[in-house]
Write the structure tokens for this entry.
Amino acid sequence: MTAKISYSDVEVGTELPAQTFPVTRADLVQYAGASGDFNPIHWNEKFAKEVGLPDVIAHGMFTMAEAIRVVTDWAGDPGAVVEYGVRFTKPVVVPNDDEGALIEVAAKVAAKLDDNTVRVDLTATSAGQKVLGMSRAVVRLA
Amino acid sequence: MALDQSFVGRTYPPTAPYEVGREKIREFAEAVGDANPAYTDAEAAKELGHPDVIAPPTFVFSITFKAAGQVVQDPQLGLDYSRVVHGDQKFAYRRPVRAGDRLTVTSTIEAVKSLAGNDILDIRGEVHDEAGEHVVTAWTKLVARAAEEA
């Protein structure tokens, strides 16, 4: 496992490059196929509204997968992720247009831990709302 | 109706092995738009010290969630799956999942709670490879929202 970033080069408060991830209905259909999660709330507007949602929503696991890219792109080696957890606080609502929704992810080093690992705290928002809470990763650096 | 507390601590039999295919990893990486070569190029993965292409960190959820289905669909537990939402998800990795892995999942109910009419279920999935080595642990919190008053 070889992270590109060295433990000695980061300190508490170091910000990782933020990224914005677009998500359209087509992305959700593709993710449903790849992940095997075919819950109709992720592709069927009529069904989503019948169960009380404002519209089709992204899979929580899709948002979780996008958010960790800020960490894996920074670390270089996705295998350097030791722990990763999130709370799904609000859904990412994905309208049926060409634009879809945006997931904005920021992250910073919150603590330096033993064994060359650091805890990274992530913030993910969509349409101005926080969509992930308690979103944290532990990653092993070089 | 509140779920039966006696299910706490119950462990279900390990699942049949799931064989992780490199094309399945590629399909997943493409679906999340992640072009990291460690997912598709064995040489790039080897340069990072892995024996073969590895899977994105959240890939393993497809396997652990399917395993959790044993719990969720246990008729004795009686969870109303049509009202279930995903509350929390956490993973602790011993090593990344990689192509060629044959993974089994052992699911345990860690907690059963009722809060404001919602049923909350915590399931831990322990993932092991063919050699019996631990690969990753997944914690999944499911919330069955209270049914509306008739």
